[in-house]
Design brief:
Layout lengths: L4 H26 L5 E5 L3 E8 L11 H17 L9 H24 L2 E10 L5 E3 L5 H23 L10 H6 L2 H6 L1
Antiparallel strand pairs: 1-2, 2-3, 3-4
Helix pairs in contact: 1-3, 2-3, 3-4
């Protein structure tokens, strides 16, 4: 079998999706809703939280609309993938991770009615309160890493493109526009 860019992206998308769903299955199996398991006291814990919104719970309660938006985004990315450097391994990795991540969260929204988030980093403030980064999952990580790789790829592509020549007119055009040139004609 020949490993074309599309096949590499598809493989990475499937691996990301499967890893995402397996980790969420573990959370659903071993943690009740809203339960927590401390891994590193005062810094990291596994949680079982549901998110019907987007990143950082923006648009909370709009699960159906966000499912449609995610499906449209997945379709748009797939149809325009040739614009994203898929001939390079970095582009294949970026899109594969994004495809798998978006698909993982779509599965959650359809099956569970919300995205299952379970990775939670936090710190304790001086008064003992918990200040944390929003909980996330493997799918979210795939999307964020994929977007980051896409930024790197775009910077690499910008550096490889030659600088555009200055907008100075050519000598011929300059001669034609002089009064002496128009008198000779």
């Amino acid at each position: 079998m020949t490993w074309t860019p599309n096949r590499r992206m598809a493989l990475l998308a499937v691996v990301t999706l499967v890893l995402d769903q397996l980790t969420k299955f573990g959370v659903l199996r071993f943690l009740g809703y809203a339960q927590e398991r401390v891994v590193v006291e005062g810094f990291f814990k596994f949680v079982h939280w549901g998110n019907t919104g987007a990143a950082w719970s923006m648009f909370h309660g709009n699960n159906e609309m966000l499912t449609i938006v995610a499906l449209l985004a997945l379709l748009a990315l797939f149809l325009t993938r040739h614009h994203f450097g898929i001939e390079q391994p970095l582009g294949q990795w970026a899109l594969g991770l994004m495809f798998g991540g978006i698909a993982g969260n779509i599965v959650d929204r359809i099956v569970h009615g919300h995205v299952v988030d379970f990775i939670y980093f936090h710190v304790r403030t001086r008064n003992g309160a918990e200040a944390g980064f929003p909980a996330f999952n493997v799918a979210d990580s795939g999307i964020c890493i994929g977007v980051g790789l896409m930024f790197l790829l775009s910077w690499q592509m910008d550096e490889k493109q030659p600088a555009t020549p200055s907008a100075a007119p050519s000598e011929t055009a300059a001669k034609e526009s002089t009064p002496a040139a128009s008198k000779e004609a």
